[in-house]
Amino acid sequence: MESWSEMPVAIVVGGQWGDEGKGKIIDLLARDAAVVVRANGGANAGHTVVTDAGVFKFHLMPSGILRTGCLCVIGAGVVLDPATLFKEIDELEQRGIDVSGLRVSSRAQLIMPYHPTLDRLEEERRGADRIGTTMRGIGPAYADKAARRGLRVADITDPEHLTRRLSSVLTEKNVLLKTLYDHPGFDLNEMAEEYASYGERLAPYLTDTETLVQDAVHDNQNVLLEGAQAAMLDIDYGSYPYVTSSSPTSAGICQGAGVAPNQVSRIVGVYKAYSTRVGEGAFPTELHDATGEMLRERGAEFGTTTGRPRRTGWFDAVLARFTARMNGVTDIALTKFDILDTLETIKICTGYELDGAPIAAPTARIEEYAHVIPTYEELPGWQSDTSTASTLADLPPNARAYVTRIEALVGVRVAYIGAGPHRDQLIEV
Predict the structure, then answer these.
(1) pTM
(2) What pLDDT, in 10s, does the model give residues 29-75?
(3) Residue 359 β-bridge partners
(4) Which of 10, 55, 1, 5 is nearest to 35 (CA)?
C-alpha cells in the first residue's frame, strides 16, 4: 500500500447506493491503521469481511476489529443500539476475536425501543409511498437528535439522570404512539432499568473519542474513517426521500468522527463493477431481465442486515462521477469484478437524457430522476475467471479495458479491484 501522505487520515466512502463491499476495503486498509473509526449510521448498515477464520458480518462494530492492535472507535455520528453491539461483541469473543480495543463515543446517540416501533408504524402508514427502511429505528433516532430530544450514551451512565431525561421524552412518545397508532406505549421504569444496565456494560468502552482520534492525528498515526451506507443515500445529495437519515459522504464522515477536512489525505470511493440498490427509489440502470437475475445470484445480492434481495443493474458512470466529485475521491476500489466474468457483453451508462435533453448528473426531484433514460456504451466481456488474479496484468485484456474505461468516465484512478469475497482476493493496482 502506498503512503497515506503528509496527513494521516484516510476515508472509505460508498459511491453508489450502499452494499459496495466497503468492509473488505476497510479490512485491507486497517492493516496499516492505528485507529479505525465508524463515523455514521447505525445497525442498518452491514459490512462483510471474509478471512481464513470465516465470514464476519458487522453492523456496528468497526471492520478494523479483525486487525490485531487496531483501536476501533464508534464515533459521535453513529446512532447506537446497545443490544446489537453487545450481540456482536459476544459473537466475536466466542470466535476468539479480541474486542478490548473497542471505544465508544459518549456523544453517540442511542436507539431507544420506541425508535424501531415508530419506524415500522410510520413505514406502514406511508403505504405505497414507503421508503423501504430497515425498520431499525434509524430515521426516528436521527429525527430526535435534530430535534434535540435524543438520548446520548453519556445519559445512561447515571441511572437517576437517565430516568429524568427519559421521563419527559417517553411521555411525549407514548402520547404519539397511542393517539396516532393506537399503540400501548412503553413503561418508563422498565426502559430506564434496561438502559441503565446497558450503561454499566458500556462503561469500559466509553470515552471522548474525538479527543482520542485527534491525539492519534497529532501523533501522525494512520487513522481510517469508515463510512456506512453510501453517497446516493445521503440525506442532502442522495435520491431523496429514498435515502438514509445521516450524511454518509466524506464530509459527513469527518463530522461524525470528529476530524477536520484538512486532516484527510486520501478518500477511497468504493464502487461495485455493476450497480445494486435495496429498497425503493429511482435506479436508472436497473435490469429486470435474466442478466439482472444472474448478477443477483452470482453476486449473492441479498442484504447483510435485512436479507432483502437487492435490485441490480449496469455500472452507472454518470452517478459514479457525481459521487466521486462530491466526495473528493482520490482512489476507486472496484469490487465484485468477478461477477461479470460470464458475460459476453457488458454495458456502462455514460449519459442521461430527460425529456429528450442530456443532463449531467442525478436530479434533485425523484420524480424526474425516475424518468431518466440512460445512454449506454457496450464493451466486450472477457468470459474467463478473474477470481485468481493477483495483479492487473493477470486480468484478460477486455477486463483491463473495462477498468480503463471506468477510470476515464469517472475521472479517478482504480487503485483496488475485488475479484472474490475473501480478503486476499483483492488486486492492488
Answers:
(1) 0.93
(2) 999 999 999 999 998 877 788 888 888 888 999 988 988 889 999 99
(3) 352
(4) 10
Structural domain spans, the chain = 9-102+208-428, 109-204
- What kind of architecture, by CATH, is found in domain 9-102+208-428? Alpha-Beta Complex (3.90)
Q: Could you identify the residue written with the cell 412518545?
A: 173
Distant-in-sequence, close-in-space partners of 148: CB < 8 Å, separation ≥ 6: none
**CA–CA separation, 183 vs 197, rounded Å?**
26
Q: Which three cell numbers stand for residue 291?
A: 442478466
Q: How high is the pLDDT of residue 63? A: 84
What pLDDT score does 6 carry? 61
Q: Is 19 a catalytic residue?
A: yes
Could you write out the DSSP letters of every residue in 109-125?
EEPPTHHHHHHHHHHHH
Convert the pLDDT of each residue in 185-198 to its tens digit. Answer: 999 999 999 999 99
CATH of 109-204, one of 3.40.50.720, 3.20.20.450, 3.40.50.150, 1.10.300.10: 1.10.300.10
**Which residues 6+ apart lie within 8 Å of 19 measured at CB?**
46, 230, 272, 276, 278, 301, 303, 304, 310
CB-based contacts of 390, cutoff 8 Å, min separation 6: 427
Q: Which candidate, 267, 224, 213, places its Cα nearest to that of 104?
A: 213
Residue 252 has pLDDT above 80, yes or no: yes
Half-sphere exposure of 428 (CA within 13 A, CB side): 8
Only one residue has cell 427519559, namely 166
Tabulate helix, strand, coil % of the chain (nearest 5).
40, 20, 40
Do 79 and 172 touch, CB atoms closer than 8 A? no
Neighbouring C-beta atoms of residue 379, cutoff 10 Å: 17
Whether 371 is catalytic? no
Residue of 27, 47, 81, 115 with catalytic role: 47
